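User: For a benchmark we're assembling, each entry needs the component sequences followed by a predicted structure for the full assembly. Here are entry 17's components. Please fill in the structure.
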Amino acid sequence: MAYCVQCGVKLAEGVPVCPLCNTPVVLPPTMVEQQSEPLFPKPLGQPKTGGVTKVRKGIIELTVSLAVVSILAVGLSLGLSGLGRYTFIPTFSIAMATTTLVVSLLSKPTYVRQATIALIGIGLLVIGIDLGDLSLSWSPIAAMALPVLWIVAVAPATAMKRQRILPLLIFAVLLYLLVINLTVSGELTWFWPVALPTVVVFILLAILLILFLTKRKGSIIPLADVVLATMVVLFGSISALDLFLTGYQRGFFALRWSTSLLWTALVVLLFLLAITCSRRLRRYFTSHVNHT
Amino acid sequence: MRRAIKSHTPEGFIALDNSALIYPPTEAAFSTNTFRLSVDLGVEVNTEILRQAAHELLDRCPYAKVRLRTGFFWHYLSPNEAEIPIWEEGSYPAGRFDFKGNNHYLLKIIHGPRRIAIECFHALTDGSGALAYFKLLLARYCALASIGDGTFADGLCYTSRPEETEFSDPFQELYDRTIRPFPSVSRAYHRKGEGGRSEAVKVIRAQVAVGEIKRRAKARSLTIGEYLSAVYLMSLQELQAQEGKEGRRRRPIRLSVPVNLRRIFARETMRNFTLFVLVSIDPALGWYSFDEIAGQVRLQMAQAVEQKQLLSQIRRNVGGERSAALRFAPTILKNPLFKLLSDTLGDQQYSGVISNLGLVSFPAALSPLVEAMDFHLSPGLVNPVSIAVVGYHDSLAINFTSYEDYDTALERLFCTFLVEDGIAVSVASNRGV
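Assistant: Structure for entry 17:
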């Protein structure tokens, strides 16, 4: 029978450490202890985790019961006042909000999981409301925006590789534009002549400027250069949109309202090239005074 | 004249007693509302005999042969004709109750190779009630296994018929709406353990000699229960001080001590008839020495178990049940509200629970076979360590049940205090096995 040297308590025979303080039991070399019977006969498994705690269970039950009461109240009041045909949207909205809340309460409280559940819930709600008259009209536009939002706001927090997010985003944006065109016009009209070339111009400009910023001398890319490069990409892409839109609407390619933007983009681009080539010029625009 | 023999068997709708109302709605992960009583015997347990003993227990106590149902306004009990299962003992005690697996019984009969245990969902009865069931189960087991006469002197008589008082709810009888309800209590100190928690109930069992602890308690004019409460308060005070919070910002340390009302009000019910009295110290006033804590515990316990104080608590509890808002609210609304408010109105008011069942005297035939007895209380999320105490032979088993995976600071302080006070403590655990 050993005693813990830290706590002074008598320990059960054969235990390797004191259960109170984890101090190892060191026996004299000649002393051998029998293993005492464990407190509980079965070998211990992994401690069980999970399950819904009291407070979380309470919130879920309260949400569900309030939803049931609300659905009954809305259904009865609309039904009894002869407006039964309008019951679907409010009751469906309550049911969807409840389901989303319950699922999110039952899931792990991580940003990725909760944000994904919220976006799926919103998507189903939007499609469901639109399907109230048994036809899909506007909801694909709203619903398709959600995957794009997921790629922008949630994907970076997942284990997904960063290099895959940008191509995925471009693909999702193109798909979104295609869906808008199909939903609004019933067929592909402006997607091929306007949207696709504009996106291509945007991608090309972005790749060129990224290469320009990363391949030039010096390892540091100043924030000002990033801002200016972004301006060039955006203004250039908007000018391309104007060009392709005019071509689609009028049959000839010309700039109508974006000339000033294109000139601005060119001036900024020239400025970027100049400060890259001339260190003196860069220094002229750069403060060396530390404002502490 | 012939007298009809009355056998009071509950039928149909059986309302939960006032104390039990809170347990079914608040049952959840980390809030199991269960407890366990067990006896280690010197002989192998025969499962078939135990099954027969369980049948006879339920025949004698029809009010335990019930299942929990959810009604429109309240949870209620109704007779259960299903077979009561006998469970092989698992790794952790006082876990979440598997109602369906247990054929909806609120009483779980468990056996190990040489252990008989019952686990009880609190809606059925309290510790003393469960001890009465357990005594009858052991007595029937002894009789059927030809061990001898295992009838406990203070236990239920198997041959007598159940009386109406056995399943009455004395809280309703003692309710007096004319007295002032018990005042509400502020939030108490809660220890934040380190190293995570899991649902498995980890046990540290400290065993001490009754004679030694009685001597140390008597030296301070305390009972054993009061002495252990004082040690618990002392340990919590040290843990709070270690957290380094400025003195005046320290919350009061309170213990919830269940008090068996059967003797105080002379009622022999087999349902819940326990109230929780609070004993506390206020560390914002400064450091308390052990003798000061002992004085506080003695004084507060004496005041708390006065009939007038207890009746005031009953007035508050039953008054709540009888309020129109609660009475006519449907269960689907009451259930979540109970869950959300139970911490504020219950667990948050105290820093720990210590339940003492007292000394169990075994009958002569059974006594030599009993090697150990244990009492385990399920802990909670707000107070993740509970203490349950039971005495047998000349030993006292102090069981610490905890959801903390690694943190044993409270148990260590408690046991080392006993050692420093001159009491030899033997420790065993299911941690790290």
